[in-house]
Amino acid sequence: MAHLDDPRTHRANLDYIRDAMDAPMLEKEKELELARAWRDSRDERAMQQIINAYRRLVVAMASKFRHYGLPLGDLMQEGNIGLMEAVNRFDPERDVRFSTYASWWIRSTIQDYVLRNWSIVRTGTTSAQKSLFFNLRRLKAKIANDEGAGALSPANVGKIAKDLGVSERDVMDMDMRLAVGDQSLNLMVGEDGETELQSLMASPEPNPEDIVVGMRTGESRSKWLNEALSQLSDREQRIIRERHLAEAPVTLDELGKTLGVSKERVRQLETRAMEKLRRDMAGHVKDASEFFA
User: Fold this and answer.
1) How far apart are CA 220 and CA 34, in angstroms?
2) What is the spatial distance between Cα 222 and Cα 212, in angstroms, rounded to a whole number?
3) What is the DSSP string of 232-269?
């Protein structure tokens, strides 16, 4: 991605904008003639004429999305992709001007690009969330203008959520993300400015106390399970161990062949053994099934 202040990139953008705005507009009949030539004969000169005439739409649309902090050149490049898609899909027999049809495609491709690149965290996964992302600033500005309020009140959060078809939590989360943006974990913070942000974040790893408690709990449960298993017959123990405690559990059919009984008989023995285990374990845990895969 080119740097926003790169002089060469800036000049290239200005040249593109100048060329796009200088290109002559198409009359409706000429537009339809070129669209049919591309659709029916794949006339590349016709396609290029349409694209050149409507690059001004790309410039106008890309300019509307500059406040998201992405390079204008990249936005225009994405808009060109949408413009070419519109040329390929346009039906000249429908009573719609190409500019109206192309505007939707250009906007859609630019919006998708913004969503993919505005943040390293995926921003919008549903149409409602995308609408929230692209409309929240505008709605907040309108509320501030009407009510003179900066932060969103609970009532305004509820109204925006209802209007856009999202949850109030989605509105609050998006508001916070738009206000803060991405932060580097290496950002220096604190009064002395010498503390990295990541050093203040809670570790996802368990703390030493949790580890010790977990070890003791695991030892206790292992002891309870072994005591309960010892109350089963040898055949019942084998069924439980091979069906529920093995890394690769065997099927009822396989176990039946090994024990010399039918698959249904193994199922009956398994059911009976599990009932015994549940009774024996009832004094220690709420649900004995948590011990088995």
Assistant:
1) 80
2) 15
3) S-HHHHHHHIIIIISSSPPPHHHHHHHHTS-HHHHHHH
Residue 283: per-residue pLDDT: 64
Given a contact cutoff of 8 angstroms between Cβ atoms, the answer to whether 72 and 63 are in contact is yes
pLDDT in tens, 178-210: 665 544 545 565 566 656 545 555 555 655 555
Q: Decide: helix, strand or coil at residue 189.
A: strand
Supply the DSSP string of 73-140, one letter for each residue.
Answer: HHHHHHHHHHHHHHHHH--TTSS--HHHHHHHHHHHHHHHHHHHHS-SS----SHHHHHHHHHHHHHH
Q: How far are the Cα atoms of 211, 220, 229, 280, 286 from residue 277, in angstroms, in the given order?
A: 28, 16, 7, 5, 12
Provide the 8-state DSSP code for 152. P
Dist CA 92 CA 113 (whole Å): 28
As beta bridge partners, residue 196 has 188
Would you give the distance in Å from CA 4 to the centre of its chain?
27
- Mean pLDDT lowest for which of 22-26, 59-63, 213-217? 213-217
User: Model confidence at 284, in pLDDT bands (50, 70, 90)?
Assistant: low
- The kind and range of the H/E element at 26 are none
Beta pairing partners, 195: 189
Both tokens assigned to 202: 């809670």
Bridge partners, 189 (sequence order): 195
